[in-house]
Each structure stands twice: as C-alpha cells, then as structure tokens.
Amino acid sequence: MRILHVLDHGLPLQSGYTFRTRAILTAQIARGWQVAAVTGARQGASDVAEETIDGIDFHRTVPPAKSLPVIGEVREIGALARRVAEVARDFRPDVIHAHSPVLDAMAALRVGKAIGVPVLYEIRAFWEDAAVGNGTGTEGSLKYNAIKWLETRAVRRADAVAVICEGLKGDLVSRGIDADKIMVSPNGVDLTLFGEPQPHDAALAAELGLADGDDVVGFIGSFYDYEGLDGLIAAMPPLVANRPNAKLLLVGGGPMEGALRAQAAASPVAGAIRFVGRVPHTEVERYYSLVDVLAYPRKKMRLTDLVTPLKPLEAMAQRRLVAASDVGGHRELIRDGDTGTLFAPDSPSAIADALAVLFADRSGWDARRTRGRAFVEEHRNWSSNISRYVPVYQRLVAARESDQKCLPQSVASV
Q1: Which of 117, 154, 255, 316 is paired with 194 by a 20 to 30 Å CA distance?
Q2: Domain that holds residue 121
Q3: Which DSSP letter does residue 189 get?
C-alpha cells in the first residue's frame, strides 16, 4: 500500500497537529506501507524541497507570494496541488490521504480526480469553528458560512472521510452526509514515544520553586482562548484559600500568553502561579512528572463540544489525574469519577471546587491513574488505532481497480 499524505504542516514544527501526523505515519511505516507527505504553504519557506525527519519523507511546497484574502487561499491551493501532482508522478500512490483544513482537501481532490487516485479526507476540526475558537472568526458570519459550505462540498466529493471523534461525525451526518462514508479515527498516543512516566524530577521541581507537599495543578499545551486558561488562573485564589500549598504550572505558549501572564501577575496569589514557556517535546515528560492534576478548562462552544483534544490522553498515558470542563469533546475521553473529573464549564468556582475535592482525598488516586492508563492502552493507542484505516484504504483501492470507466490522466494536466 502506497499512501500520500497531504498536510497543512508537519515536522520539524511542533503542535498537536504534527504529533498526530507523526503517530499516524510512523505506525503506517511500521506496518510495511510506503508513506510520503506533502506539506502546504503554511509550513513556511524551506531550504530544501525534500527532507526525512523521524523516518518520514516530507516534500515541501514553495509558498506563493502573499496577497489579499481569498486570492491568497486560492494561490495556496494551486501551489499545493501542483506539488502534490509532482510528488504523485514519482511516488504513484494508491490513496491520497488529505488532512484538514479544507484547503488541503481541495488541493488533494484536484489531483486525485485528475489522475484517478481515490482521496480520503480526514477532518481534525472544522476550520470555521477553529477560527471562532482562535478569535479570528465569528460564528454565522459570511466567511464562516462560506468555509462551512466548502467543507461540506469537499466531504461530498471525497471518496471517504475520516474524523477524530463522534462529535464531528454527528455534525456531518446532520449535513446530509451518509454515515457509512465516515470513519472515526480517534486521537491517540504513541506509547513507544510517550510511554512509561518518569519519576518525580526533584531537580526540576526545585528549579521551579515547587516544594514537597505542594498540590500541583498543571496545564501543558497551547495557550488559545478556547482552552479557558483565564478561568483556571481565576480559580487559583479560591483554591489557595482552601489548599494553601496549591500551585499552578503552565507549560507552553500561544496567542493568549501575554494576557494570561498579565492576569497572573495581577492575581492576589501570583506567587502560586508558574509560567514555564514552551519546552521541547522530548523534555515534556519531565514536567508531567511534577504535576498532580492536569487541568483542561476548555470553554463551551461548538469547537470544544465537537472536537476531542489530545492532551488529556497524554496525561492519562503518563498516569496523571485529569480534571476537565464538561464539554462534548472531553466527555468522549473522560468518565467522570472513574478515569477523571468533569466540572461545569466557564466557571472558575467550579474549577476550584473540583480541584479542592481531588486534593482533599488522595486515597483513590492510584486506582484512577491505572484506569486512565488502561483506557489509553486499550482504546487510544496508535499501534492499534492505525488498523482502522486498513478496511477503508482497501475498499478505496478495490473500487478504483474495478472501475473500468475512469482511466487515469496525466498528472501534468493538474
């Protein structure tokens, strides 16, 4: 099986998007498949047209000249389609696997339809909802509805569709997409890269001013508005009033970092809040070792109700306790009172109360950690999750081979 992946961006950039991509492609390579990836203009300019990172062959797209909105996106699609066509000419894929956003699907479909290769479109989040979550879009606006129309059109044209959770599948079905066309490929953890947790890193704890006996709450990830970290910081004064040794450790960065640092500096418990900044992924396990409870206070909106995050799974794989807002994406991952704790969204007092209850009684912590780790191993482990793609790929290849009416054209026409 030869699979050509079409990506918004990839390694060496680090994000939840690239970590999921690496896990998928690495597992497919381990299965014995031939795999290659084309990254789009948003990867940025590169000194090389091709490079191999972590055993994955990446083919880079030269970004087009910057221009006005819409025109710029059209040029991005064209540049990516041309690069996909160039790579496909030599690689000769059995399937083109395009990953969201929809710009990638549009480029992949242009090539796939031209050369007679089936296209699987994988949606990790709806682009229009991600824009709302990032504060760059407005639900119901002209731009929002236009992107939603393009997304639905791409799904209808694709030969198969993958989504990362049931929430996204349900939304597509409500748009009239046949449920049988959609597979769920949930977020997972590569336990070969993110395996056994490290012991408590006493040296790092001392460096960060964390003492033995502290109740350490942590967040490790990107600082977007929809993550609700402003609510977590606002929850610290009542939590510290209840648990004087409570500390908050924030690892990562993003658009909200400046505002969050200012909020923390103005907090009456500013001394209990630590900002670490971004750390290499190879170092992140050291920080997990310091945290008692990982908190994920996502705000309630379409994005968080429909999309499951990756970070709670990483925390459970590291045998950490998780506490998260009661939104749809979290409910697909966390069983309240069993593998984690769910609290009311958009409520600092609910966050503080939930964390205080957890710290007040540690007697069941080991059992809960074990159940969380078992959930990841059984249901969210990439080494087994990758098998979900097999019947879909096989069906697409078989359909192509049996369709005698559609002969491939020259990729030069793309």
Answers
A1: 255
A2: 2-188+381-413
A3: B
Do 94 and 223 belong to one domain? no
Tokens matching residue 213: 């006996």
Assign residue 374 the CATH number of its domain. Answer: 3.40.50.2000
DSSP state of 335: -
Tell me the pLDDT band of 193, cut-offs 50, 70 and 90.
Answer: confident
Q: What CA–CA distance (Å, rounded) separates 147 from 156?
A: 14
Question: Is 407 found in the same domain as 264?
Answer: no
Instruction: Tally the domains of the chain.
Output: 2
SS3 241: helix
pLDDT in tens, 251-279: 999 999 999 999 999 999 999 999 999 99
For the CA atoms of 185, 51, 105, 30, what is the dihedral angle to 10 degrees? -20
CA–CA separation, 390 and 28 (whole Å): 10
**How far apart (Å, rounded) are the C-alpha atoms in residues 60 and 77?**
14
375: number of Cβ within 10 Å: 20
| Residue 97, both tokens | 């696997």
How far apart (Å, rounded) are the C-alpha atoms in residues 264 and 240? Answer: 14
